[in-house]
Amino acid sequence: MTVLTRENTENSRKGETLRSGTAAVAIGAGATVLVIGAALLQAAGDNPALNAALSLSVPAEYKEAIEDAGNTCPEVTPNLLAALLTQESGFDPTARSPVGAQGIAQFMPSTWEKYGIDGNGDGKRDVKDPEDAIPSSAKYLCTLAKDVKNVPGDKQANMLAAYNAGPQAVIDAGGVPNFSETQNYVRSISALANQGSKGGKPGTTVTAQQAATAVNAAQAMLGKPYSWGGGNASGPSTGICCSPRGFSGADIAGFDCSGLTLYAYAKVGIILPRTAAAQYAASKPIDPDDMQIGDLVFYGKSASGIHHVGIYVGGGYMLDAPKPGSKVGFHPIDSMSDLFGAARPIHTSTKEI
Fold it and tell me: Which letter does DSSP use for residue 262 in this model?
C-alpha cells in the first residue's frame, strides 16, 4: 500500500527505480526449470492521453463517487482519480502512513483542515469517510492545477507532482521536480490512468506472452524483502504498520504478496486491486487443473477471507512474497495448506469488485 505525503516543499522525495529486462529462472531441486524471456513494456511517460471515462476496476461502493468527482475540472478524469486512490491507499479508507497521512486519499491533517469538504452533506468533514475524501481529493487536485497552471509542460503531470511534492516545488522546478519518488509517482499514476485503452480488449484474459512478461517482472524482484503493505505499480516501496501479528513494513522497502502481483501485472497494462481478496474478485476463476504460467493462486478459507496470493510458474511452484521476515522467491504451491483456488487476470474494464 502506498503511503505518500506531500506536506511541504522541502521533502526530497525518495522513490524506487522502475525496472525492465528479461530473466531466466531455475525453480529449485526436482522442479521443472522454467525459462521465460519476454521484453517488459515500457512505463508510460509523463504525458499520456488519459481516458475521459472510468474504465479502471474500482470497488463498487466507490464507483459513483469517483465518476462524479472525476469531472470536477478539466485536468481531473475519473481514471486519473481512480489511479491516484489506488496508488495512495489501495482504496483503504482506514489507511494511515507512518508520518500521519490519513484515509483513502492520504491527506495530511493540515491539508485536510484546509481542503477537506463535506461531500455527503452529513454536516461533518471526515478524512476517513470516502464520501468526503474522494471529492476532497478531486477538489484539491483542481486547486493544485490552478496553482501550477503557468508552469510549462503537461498540466496533469504537473498537477500530480504538486499533489505529491507541493505546488511550490513544481513552480521552482519549472515542471515535475527531479525527485525520484515524485517522478515515479507521476509516471505510475499516469500509466494506471491510461491502462483502460491498452493491453487488449476489456474483459479478456491475459495472453501467454503477457503472462510471461508479468512473471519476468516479478522474478526480477527475487530477493527483495517482504514488507507488510509494500509494493506498487512502480516497484518495491515501504509498507505500513501493522500486520495482524504486529509486523510493520514501514521501514522496509519491498513487497507483500499482493503488492508483488500488482506490480507484475501493471507491466502488461492490467491494474489489479491492492489486496489478495480483491485481486481474486477482479480475475477469472479457473480450474486448478487448467493452470497456466502466470495464473494467480489464492489462499484462504473463503473468497472474502483470502489472505495470500502467488504467481504460478509451473512445476508445482509459485513466485511470491510469503510472509514477514522472508524474501520474494519460489515456493511450492502446497507450502500453505489452505489453497482456495486459481484465477487468471483480466484486462481492465468496468468490472466492479
Answer: H
